[in-house]
Amino acid sequence: MGVEVRVHAFFPLLALVCLALSAANGLGRGLGLFFILVAAVLVRETARLLAAAWLGLRLRAILLLPIGGFFAYATPESQESANAGAGQFVMALAGSLANAATALLLAVTLLGAGGDVKLLAFPWIDASCLLRSMVWMQAGLAVLHLLPAYPLDSGRFLRGAFARAHGFSPTGRAATSIGQGLALLAMVGGMVLHSPWLIIAGFFIMIGAQIEDQGVVFQSVVDTVHMREVMLTDFATLSPSDTLADALYRCVHSLQEDFPVVRGPQLVGIVSRQRILEALRNDGNGYVQSVMSRAFQVARPEDTLGTTIRRITAGRGLSLIPVTDSGRVVGIVSVQNLMSSMSLLAEQRRIEREEARQEAGD
Q1: Would you say 34 and 14 are in contact if contact means Cβ atoms under 8 Å apart?
Q2: Count of CB atoms within 10 A of residue 287's CB?
Q3: Cα separation of 52 and 28, whole Å?
Q4: How do beta strands 320-325 and 328-334 pair?
Q5: How many CA atoms lie within 13 A of 5 on its CB side?
């Protein structure tokens, strides 16, 4: 459905843990226990994907962990809608409701079938009784996300509520710390109670919190950098009336891979070096306007780097974003130069801080 699915490396490795926990019951039951967990995660994430589609959110990718998935949104608007009150509430409830409903349906089916399945017998999740494990794995994942531990759904919802009042970055870091603390408490509790599933849940809550923490740190950095600080101001442009031979000559004498195409001060398109070469080889000489792309996005000098990165990742194959001011191209940002510009900006800021400290000391 156009959503890239990624699986965290620890997820398939959990199969080995299930095999180890089920050594006395055979390898087949150990693998069965693992796939019961996979099924619970699939139920949860399918419900969340349907909820995202109902809300009109566009997703780029989903990263799967044994405690659930982490969404990457395709557009800034989708990210903002998902973090809004109503959208976040729906997304927080969708997965838990789906798991709870599935657990109830399985329990009613097993009891109605008249089999000798003791649903309340301990341990609830064990390879010795896979049918009982099916019910309690679904129920356990539903209950897990009702805990106020970030990055679980309830913790994410509470973080969003506080973030709207106190700011995203400080609230995100605080919520991540609380989530990691509760995860550590769950792992210790699992050791005391001899509950391997409590240990596993705590471990993956901690992994998820670290993933989210890295995202919060990255977000706090890119949201303080503006386009005027990293855009290239020394760049070449082409005109739609330029011939492809003239454009190729400009390519030879420029390090740019992509060129804004302007008519007077107005931006009308973008063309790449590769597209110019292909057109010359296949069709001979022509004009730039015949090969330029008219599908492009622009940024403003005051836009943050985070906004521009989301535009680059949202536009498949998009490698250049012109920066315009009052319709005039004043700079360009490309994937090619972004990393080098960021490293140079970091060094520039470090030097400025040192100079400021020296002036303060004097």
Answers
A1: yes
A2: 16
A3: 36
A4: antiparallel
A5: 8
Q: Is 58 left (phi over 0), alpha (psi -120 to 50) or beta?
A: beta
Helix (H) or strand (E) holding 28: helix 27-54
Q: What is the mean pLDDT of residues 184-197?
A: 85
Region 276-297: mean pLDDT is 90
Strand, coil or helix: what is 231?
coil
**Dist. CA 2–CA 50, nearest whole Å:** 14
The domain 227-346 having CATH identifier 3.10.580.10: the answer here is yes
Q: Give residue for tokens 């970091």.
A: 346
**What per-residue confidence (pLDDT) applies to 88?**
76
Tokens of 161: 């509520």
Helical spans, DSSP H, in 223-238:
227-230
* Integer CA distances (angstroms), 262 to 106, 259, 268, 329, 350, in order: 63, 9, 5, 8, 37
Buried b (16+ CB within 10 A) or exposed e, 162-180: ebeeeebbebbeebbebbb
360: its two tokens: 């303060």
Is the pLDDT reported for residue 315 higher than 60?
Answer: no
In the chain, where the domains are located: 4-222, 227-346
Q: How far apart are CA 297 and CA 293, in angstroms?
A: 11
pLDDT at residue number 222 = 63
* Lookup: tokens for 150: 């970030």
pLDDT the model gives residue 107: 93
- Residue 107: closest CA among 128, 146, 137: 137
Residue 169 has phi, psi (to 5 degrees) of -65, -55
**pLDDT higher than threshold 90 for residue 159:** no
Confidence class of residue 51 from pLDDT cuts 50, 70 and 90? very high
pLDDT band at 25; cut points 50, 70, 90:
confident
What is the spatial distance between Cα 207 and Cα 13, in angstroms, rounded to a whole number?
Answer: 14
Mean pLDDT over 60-82 rounds to: 79
- The pLDDT tens digits of the residues spanning 211-240 come to 765 555 455 556 667 888 888 888 899 999
Torsion of CA 129, 133, 135, 137, to 10 degrees: 180
User: Locate tokens 């843990």: which residue?
Assistant: 17
- Whole-model pTM? 0.59
